[in-house]
# Entry
Amino acid sequence: MMETKVVGYWNEKKEKLRLKYPIINEEDLSYSQGKEKEMIELLGYKLGKTKEELRSIIILRN
# Structure
């Protein structure tokens, strides 16, 4: 199984996401190394997006 990693400048991406999707909050975007999968699942649930859709929004890598 491959791990999901958030790549790039997370603080910048986080602010853009919060502006685009006001329903998510700081806690939802709290990034902890090793907890990427849980964060993506929560965001997917709150935004009604699939992992693939979030992948293109956040730019993730496996």
